[in-house]
Design brief:
Layout: H1 8-45, E1 52-56, E2 64-69, E3 79-82, H2 84-92, E4 96-97, H3 103-107
Parallel strand pairs: 2-4
Antiparallel strand pairs: 1-2, 1-3
Length: 112
């Protein structure tokens, strides 16, 4: 069973269509490869996540609300990365430790 046309003009038309289609597929492959390379470069260039987060309150001059570990799932959008000493100082000054990630335990801070 032959599913190709028997005459030369239709075979040439089919050949042209297949060549155009193959070119479009190759262009899509090249675009997908470029996008994948850009994504990999972006992931490699991403700065490391901070070890500690300070979640700020709503408003300009409001005090901090929570101290979090760097990867805490419960950290709000108003969180900023801080170093260990800033996180400890915030706990000493009365900022609450996140009840989920328990940064006070990780920092070795015992209330008292």
């Amino acid at each position: 069973m032959n599913d190709l046309p028997p005459d030369l003009p239709r075979l040439r038309t089919l050949e042209t269509w297949l060549a155009v289609s193959l070119d479009r597929v190759r262009q899509q492959i090249a675009a997908a490869e470029r996008q994948q390379q850009e994504q990999q470069r972006g992931e490699q260039a991403r700065p490391p996540a901070p070890d500690w987060l300070l979640e700020l309150g709503i408003g300009r001059d409001t005090p901090a609300v929570y101290v979090h570990e760097g990867g805490c799932w419960n950290a709000g959008k108003r969180s900023k990365g801080v170093d260990r000493s800033t996180a400890l100082r915030a706990l000493v000054e009365g900022v609450a430790a996140c009840p989920h990630c328990r940064p006070d335990s990780a920092l070795g801070y015992l209330e008292g």
